Amino acid sequence: MNVTLSCPACHNAQFEYYLATQDFGVTREPFNLYRCTQCGLLATIPQPDEDQIGRYYASSNYISHTGKHDNRMLKLLYLAVRRIALTGKRKLIEKKYPKGSLLDLGCGTGAFLHEMKRSGWEVTGVEPANIARRQAENILNQRLFTRLDELPQKSYRVITLWHVLEHLHRPDTTLKRCRELLEPGGLLVIAVPNPDSFDALHYRQHWAGFDVPRHLWHFTRQAMKTLLNQQGFTLHQILPMPWDAYYVSLLSEACRKNQNLPARFLKGFFTALKSNLHARKTGAYSSLLYLAMK
Prior knowledge:
Number of strands: 11
CATH topology: Rossmann fold
Number of domains: 1
Strand content: 15-25%
CATH class: Alpha Beta
Shape: globular
Distance between the termini: 39 Å
Helix content: 25-40%
Number of helices: 9
CATH superfamily: Vaccinia Virus protein VP39
Radius of gyration: 18 Å
């Protein structure tokens, strides 16, 4: 069974059935994934409307919005990986630009913005989730925004979307606006899960990187290249995010719910290790980081 849907990357209208999965995080509702027959982008079907999708984030376990998780081990792992990742993200950006103005879309509880602000950057954040935004405002001691169209007119040297683009109903429109906001030669940084990775193919419907229906789109490398090109960006580099495989694999084992916690941890660890080793040859890491220039 195929569906007709406008692909935000290549504008193809034909999508073919890929697999059936469910919302493992909140509602247990069933969803399907369909693949664009042209660029390979995967779409979550059905997609909740913007005024309905908020209820799918209503969980204490959605840690990027709350800073909390019911599972202590997962919370500690998330926070440990985040600490390492924050330093890596800052150093990556500062290789290109030592200082400047930075806009973070979907800034969550503000950890990345706080890291950049402490390093001397002028930071701006957009976060639609009220609880997360208030926490970020308290940490940063400044006002943040709920929507992109609320931003004052100015140019940014760097715009980042850390695992955000897959949540957006109109990723093409968002990237078009990002290009308008970037200064000439500005840097766009996008991190997204990779549905072609070893761990994604291993876990299939249980892969936590799908995270339906919060993740509306699932970007293959070809789909992301096409989307960036369509919006006038020049792809500069694709980088691996190997730490993501461990967290995602552990969450994927939890989705299976058929083993005790130590077994989940061990299986998740070795699946992630295998995924990263496989990706050394193919480049298909669990998550990928796309650096694009205006």
